[in-house]
Write a structure and sequence with these properties.
With 82 residues, the chain is an alpha+beta fold. It has one domain. The chain has 3 helices and 2 strands. Strands 1-2 form a two-stranded antiparallel ribbon. The chain is extended. It starts with 20 loop residues before the first helix and ends with a helix.
């Protein structure tokens, strides 16, 4: 996929950034729509949920149920040294 444009943004104290309006519009990001955050070793990608494959959608659907069972201080402590 070719690079179209490079822009910079400032991260707020809440970890938020603003995607410029013309980039949101061109990329299919709409107010209130869900996005997928893909994390790699050297970068992060944001994609509209509508562009996610079925295999990835299954993993995302599992995220909430797994977080309910595994997102606790006890779990964090148990996995801390790994």
């Amino acid at each position: 996929m070719p690079l179209i444009e490079i822009k910079s943004a400032k991260i707020t104290d809440k970890g938020q950034i603003a995607i410029p309006k013309h980039l949101r519009k061109a990329s299919g990001f709409r107010k209130g729509s869900k996005v997928v955050i893909l994390t790699f070793e050297d970068h992060i990608e944001l994609r509209p949920m509508s562009q996610v494959s079925r295999k990835m959608a299954t993993a995302l659907a599992s995220e909430k149920s797994l977080a309910r069972d595994w997102s606790s201080k006890e779990e964090d402590e148990a996995w801390k040294g790994l």
